[in-house]
Amino acid sequence: MGAERELTALRERVDAALSRLFTENAPYKRLTDSMRYSLLAGGKRIRPVLTLKFCAISGGDPEAALPLALAVEMIHTYSLIHDDLPCMDDDDLRRGRPTNHKVYGEGRATVAGDALQAAAFETALAAPLPPERAVRAARYLASCAGEKGMCGGQELDTAEDSARTLEDLTLINDLKTGAMLRAACVLGVIAAGGSDAQIAAAELYGLHLARAFQIRDDILDITSTEEELGKPIGSDERNRKPTYASILGVPAAESLVLRETEEAKRALHAAFPDTSFFDALADLLAVRTS
């Protein structure tokens, strides 16, 4: 199976599993409707796919890692709901649809994000894995989602004096975007009981993949359209936020995407037997148009 076909098949597997969540007819149904609205809004599902594939390449059973994959996607979705709020980016559009707070109101959107974060850890800890692996995975996920990872990156990104240099920008992106992509990779290895060398390689792959992904996002914010991306464009320029594209220029940023992509691919070759899917995925993401 080619990488693109396998990616599609894995996305469908993740989407089917997500569609079974939060369906109870309970007094708080408006809350679970809000959670499902964003969770099932589509997206690339790159993070859960990485969890499943890293579990497989590390010799584990991807089915046992599926709850971890879903947990990563729940954390990612909660972060998008909160990012879109008026107190953060104040965006009206996400994945081609009105943002959660535009449909359900700011209060319910905030609680929906909170509830998705809690559900992520409940789901991860219920994975059919040896207890020590489930706990290790949940702890790693928490460290990547909290102040040492995604939330810390968000704090730096929203600070008034943030991102003045490329070094500042790299730190923000390594935390805000990179931490959860690293988590997606590492959780798969943990689920399989992989070696420390494999965990280190997965972390490095996630780091460089995330850098390439974010730089490509910065480029698309300048060169793409709202229809193609399914979200507003040009917001960084309007908010006078430096990006790789604005600091380096689009051609140099494009070259940096390719360099980071090659670093990601190189990271895995000594630790895993067949990295063809991961190589192909990195190449696909490097040239994406949405």
Proportion of helical residues? over 70%
Principal-axis shape: globular
Poorly predicted parts: none
CATH fold-level label: Farnesyl Diphosphate Synthase
SS content category: mainly alpha
How many domains comprise the coordinates? 1
Give the biggest beta sheet.
2 strands, antiparallel
Number of strands: 2
Which radius of gyration do the C-alpha atoms yield?
18 Å
Please indicate the percent range of residues in DSSP E strands (runs of 2 or more).
under 5%
Q: What is the mean pLDDT? A: 93
Task: Output the number of helix runs.
Answer: 16
- Order of the strands making up the biggest sheet: 1-2
The CATH architecture comes to: Orthogonal Bundle
Order of helices and strands: HHHHEEHHHHHHHHHHHH
Query: What is the level 1 CATH name?
Result: Mainly Alpha
Describe this structure in words.
With 290 residues, the chain is mostly helical. It is built from 16 helices and two strands. A two-stranded antiparallel sheet has the order 1-2. Strand 1 (93-94) and strand 2 (97-98) form a beta hairpin. It is globular.
What's the short story on this structure?
With 290 residues, the chain is mostly helical. 72% of the residues lie in helices and 1% in strands.
Question: Can you lay out the helices and strands and say which pair or pack?
Answer:
Blueprint: H1 3-19, H2 29-39, H3 46-57, H4 62-83, E1 93-94, E2 97-98, H5 100-104, H6 106-125, H7 131-145, H8 150-158, H9 166-176, H10 178-192, H11 196-223, H12 226-229, H13 235-238, H14 244-248, H15 250-268, H16 276-286
Antiparallel strand pairs: 1-2
Helix pairs in contact: 1-3, 2-6, 3-4, 3-10, 4-6, 4-10, 7-10, 8-9, 10-11, 11-15, 15-16
